[in-house]
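JOB MANIFEST
job_type = single_chain_structure
chain_count = 1
residues = 105
[input]
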Amino acid sequence: MIKRIRFIVLLAPLVWATSFSAEEAGEPSAAERITAAAAEHRSKLDFDGDVFSGPAWQRLVAEGAAAQFVLVGEEHGIAENPKLVAQLFTELALRLNREFELPKV
């Protein structure tokens, strides 16, 4: 625990100095770069209460079909997340003609 705190304390001035010099030079901050990248790569996901669709859905299915593994991260407390994953894996199973096994937690 003490080593971790020391590391954070030693790292903080480096992060501050790096962000200060970038802002001083007129460059966007890390938060601004992340926000810009997110805005550039966002896509619309439609949900009518039963079925997902739209450009983001099409990309999820295409990327999932081309991938060897699919990892889903989610924010807890959103009711649509399990529905999205269920529909995605059902669609992938149909497209790839295979079954998926979800780990039991």
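[summary]
Strands lie at 46-47, 52-53.
Helices lie at 2-24, 30-41, 55-66, 80-96.
exit_status = 0
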